[in-house]
Here is the input.
Amino acid sequence: MLQQNFFTIDPALQRADAAARETVQPAFRRIEETTEYNQQKVLAAFIRGGVSESHLGISTGYGYGDRGRETLERVFADCMGAEDSLIRHNFVSGTHALTVALFGLLRPGDKMLCLTGRPYDTLIGVLGIDSHVDGSLKDFGVEYDEVPLTADGRPDLPAIREKLAAGGYRVAYMQRSRGYSLRPSLRVEEIEALCRLVKEVSPAAWTVVDNCYGEFVQPKEPTQVGADLIVGSLIKNPGGGIAPTGGYIAGRAELVEKCAFRLTAPGVGREVGATLGHNRELYMGLFNAPHVTGEALKTAVYAAALFGQLGFASAPAWDEPRADIIQTVELGNPEALVAFCQGMQKGAPVDSFVTPEPWDMPGYDSQVIMAAGAFTLGASIELSADAPLRPPYAAWMQGGLNFHSGAMGVLLAAQSMLDKGLLQL
Here is the structure.
C-alpha cells in the first residue's frame, strides 16, 4: 500500500485501520460478486431498452412524447424486475414519492397496515398519526394501523397474520431500512416471506415497500419476490451519486398508473412531465448505481470492523449479510456522537471546513446532527452520518461514492473522537 501523508492520523489508529482492512476482505469479495451481477443486470437492461444518445436530450413545457423519459422508465422497470415504473426528477424526496404512492393507492375509508412497526419520522405527518397535520391521509379518511416489531426487531408474523385476518386492509406497508431505530433492516428474503403471508391471508391487499437505501444491495429487488410496489429516492442508491434529485415508483403496471394520476392529474398521468435536461444525469446515475452501492457497502463494512476493534457496538457487524447501505455505530454519549459527525465532515469533499452542530430539524422530535459534505445536497449515497441526539447516541452512517475516500472519512471520525479524549486506544 502506498504511504500517504495527506491527513494526520494517530499511529495507533493507523494500525487499527490496517487491521480492519485485512479483516473485511471476505466481506468485500461477497460485495464485489453482487456488484458485478447487478452491474451486468443494469447493462443488459440498457441494451434491451435500446438506449441511444437521442434519449439523453431535453424536453420543456408539458413534456409530451419525451422518448428519453419513457425509455428510462422502461429500463428502470427492467432493472427492478417490475412491470412498469415512474422515475422523475420532480419527486423532491423519498418521502414525496412514498406520499404520491400512498395517495395514489388509498381512497377514503381504506385502511393500511404497516408490518414493520412505526415508520420513518418524516412519514408520520403524511399518515396523520401522533398529531394533526393538514392534508394527511387521515384527513382524507384513510385509517392507519401498525404491528410492532418483536423484541429482537423482526416483523411479528403471528401478530401480522392476526391483523390481516381481521380484514379490510387495502395496503400492507413495509419499510426495508431501519430508519432511526436499531432494528435489523429487512433482507429481500424476509420481504418475500411477508408478501407471501399477505397474499395468503389478505389477497386483496397491495404490498408496498419503502425500498430506500436497499436498491442493488442484493441480487433481487422486492418486486421480484412478490411486492406489488416499491418506492425510493434517486439521491440514494439508484441515482448512483449523479442524479441531482428525484425518486421512483415501480411495480405492477396498474398500480404505477394510479400513482401517475396522483403525480400529475387524473386522466393525464405519465404522459406529461418535462425532463428539463435531466435525462442524461438520471440515465448515467442508474448505470453507475450498482458500482456506487457496492462502494458504499464496503465503506459501511469497514466502519463496522474499525469501530468494533475500538470497542463500539455496530450494526450490522462487518461479517453480517446486508440489506441496505446503512451502518450504525453506538457512541454511548452525546459528546462522542457530535465528535464522530464533526470528524466525518472533515473528510468531505465539499464543506469540509463546516462544523456540524445539533439543531431542531423539521419532521423530527429530537435535535439532529448531520455530517453531510456532498456534491448533491442531502444525498445519502454520498458519505454522510446523522443522528437524533437521544440514547443510545448511535450514528447512522451511509454512503461513500468510492471506498477509498469513504474509509478516510470514517477514520477521521475516529480521530476526532480521539482528539477530544472520547476514544481510548
Remarks:
- The chain is about 40% helix and 15% strand.
